[in-house]
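Query structure, 304 tokens:
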């Protein structure tokens, strides 16, 4: 039995296999329509979500399986004080695989310690979001055809943005990647995430100036400032519009730039950019469903 708590729970070879599997699902969806017949996925979401929960649910339905779960802690017995451990022991009786999102870092690890079925971390606090990273990697592969030789700009809230933490960790394992980390001083990447960069394994630069570095980038990964992780509303208000990507700024970018965003978007990308062919973020959403289908198949050890 495997759990996916961090992207490091998958080897590079396994990640590449998942990408290939997702590409095969995209090309041959009918082949997978009954793959998870009579299997159940539980989605336990203690924190709001649109894409992750619904893409997991759509993924399981498209594999012929069924879905149970809750979309907020207040509608579960967590509201009466039940622990994550007891909830997981209970749901393990009902489901073949469980995905959990929780505001507390480490909650999916607790879940894995008490589960009798595979656990997938669907985002824990400001820590990790490994399945978003799988969606991001599939998107990069589909848009660019490769990982090697890319200059990747990560922009916005790099301190609390869990998708950025998991993505840096994953991309560090590919050769010939370069990072440009663009954030306000207060929202820099935490040291524990930056460790492989600091050890000199992957070249990177840090800046507060998006426009200055825009011409260098092959990929621009925008993120929102994570209001829910701030201790102080005044700090959030001061920092929330640090970066707003507009069509005017895009004039400085490469013509084949890929603009990504894990979403939800608040104000970081002008809606006028949505129809620009460089905007990949809604294709990225669709990729999230396909890569989660591939992951469910892998963890349930189902052959298509
Ligand atoms: N990208 C992402 O995690 O979106 P949701 O919060 O809507 O699931």
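Result returned for the query:
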């Amino acid at each position: 039995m495997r759990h996916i708590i961090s992207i490091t729970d998958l080897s590079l070879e396994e990640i590449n296999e998942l990408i290939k599997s997702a590409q095969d699902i995209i090309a041959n969806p009918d082949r997978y329509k009954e793959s998870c017949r009579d299997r159940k996925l539980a989605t336990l979401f203690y924190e709001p979500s649109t894409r992750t929960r619904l893409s997991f649910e759509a993924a399981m339905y498209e594999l012929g399986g069924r879905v149970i779960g809750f979309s907020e802690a207040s509608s579960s017995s967590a509201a009466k004080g039940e622990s994550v451990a007891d909830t997981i022991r209970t749901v393990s009786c009902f489901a073949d695989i469980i995905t959990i999102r929780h505001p507390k870092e480490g909650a999916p690890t607790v879940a894995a310690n008490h589960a009798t079925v595979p656990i997938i971390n669907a985002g824990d606090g400001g820590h990790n979001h490994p399945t978003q990273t799988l969606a991001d990697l599939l998107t990069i592969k589909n848009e660019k055809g490769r990982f090697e030789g890319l200059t990747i700009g990560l922009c916005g809230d790099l301190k609390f943005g869990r998708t950025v933490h998991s993505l840096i960790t994953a991309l560090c394992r590919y050769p010939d990647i370069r990072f440009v980390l663009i954030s306000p001083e207060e929202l820099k990447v935490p040291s524990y995430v930056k460790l492989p960069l600091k050890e000199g394994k992957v070249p990177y630069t840090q800046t507060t100036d998006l426009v200055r570095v825009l011409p260098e980038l092959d990929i621009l990964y925008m993120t929102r400032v994570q209001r829910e992780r701030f201790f102080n509303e005044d700090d959030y208000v001061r920092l929330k519009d640090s970066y707003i990507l507009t069509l005017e700024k895009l004039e400085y970018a490469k013509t084949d730039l890929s603009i990504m965003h894990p979403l939800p978007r608040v104000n970081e990308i002008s809606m006028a950019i949505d129809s620009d062919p460089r905007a990949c973020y809604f294709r990225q959403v669709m990729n999230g469903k396909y890569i989660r289908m591939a992951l469910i198949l892998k963890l349930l050890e189902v052959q298509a």
